Amino acid sequence: MLVLVLDSSTPAVTAALVEVTADGVTARAQRRTVDARAHGELLAPQVDAVLAEVGARPADLAAIVVGLGPGPFTGLRVGLVTAATMAQVLGVPAYGVCSLDGIGHPAAAGEPVLAASDARRREVYWAVYDGAGQRIAGPDVDTPAVAARRARDLGVTAAVGDGAHRYAEVFDLPLLAEPRYPDPTALAALAAERIRSAAPGDPLTPLYLRRPDAVAATARKPVLP
């Protein structure tokens, strides 16, 4: 089954095609551009590019997998709206996966690992994964110092992700080079059982974890003559 994978929870705008079979998940094509200000401009052309690379059409897709975040409001919304719209138009299910799982799950190698992405405002989105790649804490948003303290309490021995690299001195843990951003093959693997069983699609509820910067006015402004 040919599956489209999208993630826009980080500055890395990602579209990929994977093949899901009874034996596993195989990467077929991928486009990734790191640009925190161009999610809306980049994602659709990248979807077209990965389809063209394998000679496929949107109608060939059996499902869509999308990263649910956590991530900044504007960028994350692009991926979720794209996934939901395509799923509705094509009549295929869309499955959501925590984007941090696409970093922490493939990085785990027998010992607990901290996965972190940049949340701006000098904060990180973070989660902790055990040696088997299962999430045991998070996702949450905190200052790097708070996340580091929680990670130490859970016996974490390494850190991974762009947020971990950005605040390496604060975390004071060995850094894993990859994955720096959510890995689309890992996201698909985490949804593979749902895909194989043709489970109903998810509601694609975003993991914002905090309010957007823009807020509605709470009082009317006086009108001067």
UniProtKB/TrEMBL annotation:
GO terms for molecular function: tRNA N(6)-L-threonylcarbamoyladenine synthase activity. SUPFAM superfamilies: Actin-like ATPase domain. It holds the Pfam family TsaD. Its EC number is 2.3.1.234. It comes from Micromonospora rubida. The keyword 4Fe-4S does not apply. Keywords: Acyltransferase, Transferase. The keyword Phosphoprotein does not apply. This is tRNA (Adenosine(37)-N6)-threonylcarbamoyltransferase complex dimerization subunit type 1 TsaB. InterPro entries: ATPase_NBD, Gcp-like_dom, T6A_TsaB. Residues 36-148 form the Gcp-like domain. Coiled coil: none annotated. Transmembrane segments: none annotated.
